[in-house]
Prior knowledge:
31% of the residues lie in helices and 21% in strands. By secondary structure, it is of the alpha/beta class.
Amino acid sequence: MQPTVGYKLVQLANGVHSVYSLAHRETFHPVIGPVAEAEALYVNQLRLPDRLRSHESEFVIWDVGLGAAANALTALKAVQEIPGCIRLVSFDNTVEPLRFALRHADVLGYLGAHEDHLQQLITCQRVSFSQGSLTVDWQLCLADFPEFLTQSEVQELPKPHAILFDAYSPAKNPAMWTQPLFAKIFRLLDSTRPCAMPTYSRSTMLRVSLLLAGFFVGSGHATGEKEETTIAANALGLISEPLDQRWLQRARKSTSAEPMWEPIYRQAPLSAETWEKLRDHPQFA
Length: 285
Ligand SMILES: C[S@@+](CC[C@H](N)C(=O)[O-])C[C@H]1O[C@@H](n2cnc3c(N)ncnc32)[C@H](O)[C@@H]1O
């Protein structure tokens, strides 16, 4: 669905404001708000400051679902004092939430000194700037993400060290949560470049999709909204709590574990074929 219908501000119980999509009837960062959620889910879990500090070349972050840029800007703020070079590649099929955020920058409060950078990102789909001794090269791929992953130009993108994955929920936005989509993301990674991808869902269906795509998968940090989230990576060392045999046995009995193979939301138990592939995943060996 192309979200063109609009957005509004909502005030959360803690007083913080977040963006709400009228078309999807979803709040971008519910419960604890944009900055606190981005810090818990992405910055801390990905250990972004530590990884950047010990990194010598360009550190590449993919930001899937740029939206109102809270995740991207919170990540940049967390590393602003660290000398280095960040290459940020954001993906979205619309800049409307970003325009909306710019119109409400005072209430949202997290855009900081980046309003001109965001305007340039909207106009040119690329902006470069420095904050202290950190340089940032930020690119926007404005396209339908699942479709873009099938194009040859996606191969030219720098390979990520970290992915912030933040689509609308699987029920409202199934095209962003299919197994083939995660398999394509996994194939785009450089197997010699450790990369981790947290996301807010802890659903069995998502975790099975990621495992079958080739990722190692673990339980992710709580965010306030969810007591547990999910982190996937192409290197087991980036996951502190890998899913184990107990999770595997629960998945076997779950009524909602079979991946979505097509962009149509539905819930189903594991098929025999999926179960066999899952059981043989190296994580459970
Ligand atoms: C929950 S919002 C992201 C919030 C954002 N990360 C932030 O920090 O403000 C989900 C985003 O995914 C984008 N999205 C949904 N379906 C998409 C698709 N098929 N292709 C590209 N982007 C998509 C939406 O336009 C929306 O901006």
